[in-house]
Design brief:
The chain is α/β, with parallel strands linked by helices. Helices cover about 30% and strands about 20% of the residues. A seven-stranded mixed β-sheet has the order 6-5-4-3-2-1-22. It has a seven-stranded mixed β-sheet with strand order 7-8-9-10-11-20-21, with helices on one face. A six-stranded parallel β-sheet has the order 14-13-15-12-16-19. The longest helix is centred in the N-terminal third of the chain and has 28 residues.
Length: about 475
Amino acid sequence: MNNQVTIKSLGAAETVTGSKHLLTTPEITILVDCGLFQGLKTLRNKNWEILPVDATQIDALLLTHAHLDHCGYIPLLVKKGFKGKIYMTAPTRDLTEIILRDSAKIQEEEAQFANDQGYSKHTPALPLYTTDDVERALPLFVEVEHSQVVQLSDSVSFQFRKNGHILGSCSIQMSCYDKKIVFSGDIGRNNSRFLLPPAALDGADYVVMESTYGDRLHPDTDPLDQLAKVINDATEDHGAVIIPSFAVGRAQEIMHLINLLKKEGRISTWIPVFLDSPMAANATDILCKYPKWHKLSKEECDSVCHDVIINRDFHNTRNIIEKKGAKIIISASGMLTGGRILEYMKSLAPVKKNTVLLIGYQAEGTRGRALQNNAHELKIRGTYVPVRCKVVEITGLSGHADQKELLLWLKQFEKRPPQIFLVHGEPSSQQAFKLKIEYEFKWKVKIPKENEESVLFEVKASAHA
Ligand SMILES: [Zn+2]
């Protein structure tokens, strides 16, 4: 019998999407995260490829957070025969349910639209998965309390520990035979106005760590000042501020900041703020339901949502687009890969007085990245849309730790130097961060390739009876 404990990244290896990390032990096989590849066509095509592991052989899935690049493949994994439990925190459960239903709907609509317009290279265009596939996955979801120890097998257990990235997001601290393995998940910020900072961990022998901003620092300027300036500049021109954002959780964070600016009199109180998302109706509830997971008081939660006009109905989107005067629109998806934000871009991006405000990470190959790189046009649903509006980015609002914060997060492992596996980063960022860790800590750092198996350790005969 194989007595090795191995790790293999089926996604998010030398790229930032498609997170799937497979831990194989003599007792149990565990998948950490089950995300979709997003961005470049070559990456998105991977979602359609055969999974390099038999889904029926995976015993359990641990989910760090509700972003699509971490949870979006779950319905397919279940379709391919996975029958184990899917562990996550309560807010992650609520968010993931909404996100997956929305993801299926977007895919069904896009396939339908492609078939109607005849622009797909495949006939008929098919959705990656459907709402029915999502419904079949939901009964496998299991809620886990923060810091609760979950025994997965005789020798393997884990705990979720808050990591401050989005509502409900966590790192995973795992006990595996006599070793400790940490999966960082996406590491958040230390000084967010919305979320608590990452919780301390007990030490580790192996750390599987994200490296999205491994080569960069967020600016020192207060993002709230920048946000006020963007909104005031646009208001002066009677323009619209369009904010592509993850619609649940992240959107509430930006709504909170806009609300703060209004309360402090730093922007006009009359500017209408629209949250256009079919998922938005549940957003308020989720925020108020989990007060332990964010910094907002009950009053702040209520006030955040009081000031926003929530639109669920697709038919009203056109009315918001045509509404004259200054306005702020928050809509998904955050990297402009799909969703209603595309309708806004089609109509509002060609108008000079408008502003698109980017607040999150934009993966390679997404329309968001194209905007960061000053694209003069965007291809949306088969046609080119000229970009004449302003494009502004506030990286200080990012949900991802920068290089300094990532190094600070690593400092907690100093007493027991671990081996590091860098995942979830583009190659340039990973290389820079690897050198930095080696310089600062003298630790062993590996950047695994996709589907490359690494042996962590061998289980002694006595430990594996
Ligand atoms: Zn994330």
